[in-house]
Amino acid sequence: MCYASPHQTQGNSPMTESEQSSLISTKKEQPGFDVARWMLLARDKFGKSLASQVRELASLTRGRGRLPVKSYYTYRLFDDERFTPELKRTYVGIDFSGEIISKLGDSWHEFASDKPTLTLLLRGSGLPIPETQALVHPVQTFLGSERIRSSEELGDFLRKRAVYPVFTKPTDSVSSLGAASIDNYDASDDTLCLADGRKVPVGEYLEGVEPYIASGYLVQSRMAPHPELAEFLGPKRLGTCRMFVFVDEEGPVLWRASWRIPTGTSVADNFWRGGNLLAGLDPETGDLIRVVQGLAKEFEPIEAHPDSHCEFAGKRFPEWQAMRDTVLRAASAIPKCRLQGWDVALTDKGPVLVECEGNGGDPIMTQLPANKGLLEGRYARFRDWVDTYAAEQKQKNKNWRLRRVQTRLGSLFESRKN
After folding, report:
1. What average pLDDT does this structure show over 284-290?
2. Do 315 and 288 form a contact (C-beta atoms < 8 A)?
3. In 3-state terms, the chain is what percent helix, strand and coil (to 5)?
4. Cα(297)–Cα(231) distance, integer angstroms
5. Please, what is the average pLDDT of the chain?
6. Quick one: pLDDT at residue 22?
7. What is the DSSP letter of 145?
8. Quick check: 9 pLDDT over 80?
9. What is the pTM of this model?
């Protein structure tokens, strides 16, 4: 049961100075990382000697998972009571997926990460997608939405034709950079009323989104959360699920899942935004594994939502089978994209595919809340298959080049005979 304060309204938690002064987030706010401090912490509080840390780091950074030094401390893999040597080797770094894509010669990851193009493909496949009211781009169009070419035209659209509430975001940005959630337009003072309670002049908003227009900016109808999720999050915010799918020779498999939970004044649910939570989910059942907040030294497990006070223990994500079915249907629509990081929202009308990262996304999203790495079981076997496939392709190319040389030499000798 939830016990929200009667004076609490959605998104009215205290705002930081940076949040008050900036409408559009243009970069991540990442905590500083001090290797020396972390090494001393691991030694003094966890009993991991400096020599042991160095040996383990050497092994993991050069290992199959390509784990960066920072990730070793972010996941706290120096804690030998929590992690066995075998479990530590299951963790992968952010460059791990790039190595897979390179070995496969995969260019589909770029296609999957292009929001307008992917959305059209999903629409053609009969899959649920957000309603796009307008695309702002110098030349590109988007079927079924209004054509807008400049920030001035966008301002006219927002004042006269937009159907509120809306959520606006760049077409090629990740981590919700450049996004805004808008309740309505107030013509009396030419302002936009944001979901967090602020009123912002239209001109200031347009200045914030101007840098994104050259590559594309979307105006979409803002979706309402499923009633069970609204109890946690309020009626104006979605907490999407990051659903990591990979495609092996047997087809797509949902390997890991997590629920991104916005708090306070966050315009979006991305974990890097201060205060947001991340819940690990059982990919088969949707049961919550654990909920965490923060990275590095700020990391801590969370028992209840800080705004609504809803408790997480014993919860199961609603309509999980429908969520699974939707993402696997979507994965089957782009089977040549071997790594897929889907963001799927459960709305009051069912699951909706928000976007996809064609490299599977940052592995911290699924490894941190699950308390284990990705590189195990079927995914580890898939990684072995990638190496075999790459070796076979290399040999095929070598044989093809050899046959080409032989053919040319044969033609040369034949011409000299004649």
Report:
1. 95
2. yes
3. 40, 20, 40
4. 30
5. 86
6. 46
7. S
8. no
9. 0.83
